[in-house]
């Protein structure tokens, strides 16, 4: 029996690179990469736009151990093309999920993405659809697919739809989960609808605290690699199934959310409805106090 | 073709469908007398939390009925609704929920066929048409991830430059031909012939795996995706094997 050891150095998840996140997440020295950068499987499309390629196309996929248990891992690099899904990038994740199904191994997806890479939009969009299908096929075989959200680029666009197929989501305050980004809403609907430069508005509408409170994420953690590691170990003890009962429960959960909060103009109103004493103070609360205040939040257990 | 013309050509034996400003739902009769469920997002409207939950609820009811009848998903939409309210309420979950419901229906024995007869884009396209087991289109359909003017803003390239680049590759520009070449659309129907037999032909295809990346490779619009995914599967299997026997 090999010793299970984690990297214990403090590391901000938000600041870390994809490779640093994987190293800090898995048991020390246990990760092996598939199609690593030495193979130079670059995007065949970026040169059309005179854009630089990256040898891993902005995603690291492979296999490691988490607390001794084998697990398949994908980590997006938000600092390359905003972590966006292109053809090669997406296909690496599709392959990993199909492998998970075949090998009966759980999957961790470390999201850090603005969504579909526009320079290869059609390939990226189809990759999202293929990945969502592969997630559900794996989950129907009982595989856990756990999403971790706390990166620089957030989890936007098609990435947020993939997150919605995961069996469990772990999020930090810095994690943002949303389909349309702030700039996209402002461009399409005007600054009166959404002022993308109002950072407080962005965080309270799309950020980790709000998502945890409405049950869009299951676990709220500090911006620390070790906190993500501990939460991932716990998440893999759940079951990932996705059947009629789960979707019926999700239908009821999401319908209830519209009923309870559908008229709210701002996140603060939702937090008030949730019974939070001084909702305007919520964004400033440290994790411990926030979690105590979030006691009566909406949850998604067995309904995701 | 208008929606009414499409429905008349698809279901000459009868149909009972209700439409709202944004959605359609109901049942129709196939040429062989069997029923088919019909639902969709219509009239070029965006797909938001309210429409997604309604459609998903309908799909889950169909699955629970246990009839295992096919489901046709009609799509003529805009993109996801881009609004503060939709995002505040967690739109990503609602769109994923709809996609999951369609994938669940397929896994529970319903054939799911998407028919793209108008526009669709981004999150709305992923949550509806692209969640069907087989996606077909009519000529004139306009799938897109983002329109070229918006793409020009984001990529900081002029529309003329983007148009010139689109001549060289099907990989980024909006349009039906590009989505066909990329493998996203199985077949484009002939609108000058009756649609009912063309639907029957799709329903007769054997159930199978996700074949879109293979189609993309064959058609030349997406040459790498299938190969990369297969290599990852083989490498994961080898790593798994080493761990089992090491």
UniProtKB/TrEMBL annotation, chain A:
Keywords: Transferase
UniProt domain CoA carboxyltransferase N-terminal: residue ranges: 1-244
SUPFAM superfamilies, sorted: ClpP/crotonase
Family matches, as InterPro entries: AcCoA_carboxyl_beta, Acetyl_CoA_COase_Trfase_b_su, ClpP/crotonase-like_dom_sf, COA_CT_N, Malonate_beta
Pfam family, one: Carboxyl_trans
Domain of life (superkingdom): Bacteria
Descriptive protein name: Biotin-independent malonate decarboxylase subunit beta
Automatic annotation (TrEMBL), chain B:
Enzyme category, top tier: lyase
Gene3D superfamilies found in the cross-reference section: 2-enoyl-CoA Hydratase, Chain A, domain 1
One Pfam short name: MdcE
GO molecular function, one term: lyase activity
UniProt KW Zinc-finger keyword: no
EC number(s) stated in the UniProt entry for this protein: 4.1.1.88
Signal sequence residues: none
Keywords on record: Lyase
Keyword flag Lyase: yes
Protein name: Biotin-independent malonate decarboxylase subunit gamma
């Amino acid at each position: 029996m090999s010793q299970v050891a984690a990297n214990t150095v403090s590391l901000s998840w938000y600041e870390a690179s994809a490779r640093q996140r994987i190293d800090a997440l898995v048991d020390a020295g246990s990760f092996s990469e598939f199609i690593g950068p030495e193979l130079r499987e670059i995007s065949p499309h970026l040169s059309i736009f005179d854009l630089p390629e990256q040898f891993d196309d902005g995603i690291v996929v492979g296999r490691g151990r988490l607390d001794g248990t084998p697990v398949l891992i994908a980590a997006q690099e938000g600092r390359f093309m905003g972590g966006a899904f292109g053809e090669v990038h997406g296909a690496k994740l599709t392959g990993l999920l199909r492998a998970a199904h075949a090998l009966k191994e759980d999957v961790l997806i470390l999201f850090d993405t603005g969504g579909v890479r526009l320079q290869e939009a059609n390939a990226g969009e189809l990759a999202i659809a293929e990945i969502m299908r592969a997630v559900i096929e794996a989950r129907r075989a009982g595989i856990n697919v756990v999403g971790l959200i706390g990166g620089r680029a957030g989890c936007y666009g098609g990435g947020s739809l993939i997150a919605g197929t995961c069996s469990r989501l772990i999020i930090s305050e810095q994690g943002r989960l949303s389909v349309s980004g702030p700039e996209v809403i402002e461009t399409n609907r005007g600054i009166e609808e959404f002022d993308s430069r109002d950072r407080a508005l962005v965080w309270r509408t799309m950020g980790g605290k709000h998502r945890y409170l409405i049950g869009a994420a299951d676990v709220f953690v500090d911006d620390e690699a070790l906190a993500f590691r501990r939460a991932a170990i716990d998440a893999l003890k759940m079951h990932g199934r996705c059947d009629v009962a789960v979707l019926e429960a999700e239908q009821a959960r999401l319908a209830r959310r519209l009923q309870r909060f559908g008229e709210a103009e701002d996140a603060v109103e939702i937090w008030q409805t949730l019974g939070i004493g001084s909702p305007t103070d919520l964004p400033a609360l440290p994790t411990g106090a926030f979690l105590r205040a979030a006691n009566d939040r909406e949850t998604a257990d067995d309904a995701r | 073709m208008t929606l009414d013309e499409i429905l008349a050509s698809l279901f000459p034996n009868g149909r009972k469908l209700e439409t709202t400003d944004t959605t359609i739902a109901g049942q129709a009769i196939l040429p062989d007398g069997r029923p088919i469920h019909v639902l969709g997002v219509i009239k070029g409207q965006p797909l938001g939390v309210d429409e997604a939950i309604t459609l998903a609820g309908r799909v889950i009811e169909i699955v629970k009925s246990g009839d295992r009848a096919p489901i046709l998903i009609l799509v003529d939409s805009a993109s996801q609704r881009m609004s503060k309210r939709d995002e505040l309420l967690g739109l990503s979950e609602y769109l994923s929920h709809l996609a999951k419901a369609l994938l669940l229906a397929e896994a529970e024995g319903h054939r799911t066929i998407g028919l793209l007869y108008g526009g669709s884009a981004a999150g709305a396209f992923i949550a509806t048409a692209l969640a069907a087991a087989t996606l077909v289109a009519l000529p004139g359909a306009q799938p897109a991830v983002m329109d070229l003017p918006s793409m020009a803003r984001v990529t900081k390239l002029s529309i003329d430059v983007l148009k010139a680049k689109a001549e060289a590759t099907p990989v980024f520009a909006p349009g039906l031909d590009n989505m066909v070449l990329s493998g996203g659309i199985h077949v484009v129907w002939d609108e000058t012939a009756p649609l009912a037999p063309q639907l029957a032909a799709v329903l007769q295809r054997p159930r199978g795996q996700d074949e879109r990346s293979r189609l993309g490779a064959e058609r030349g619009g997406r040459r790498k995706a299938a190969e990369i995914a297969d290599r990852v599967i083989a490498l994961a299997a080898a790593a798994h094997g080493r761990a089992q026997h090491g």
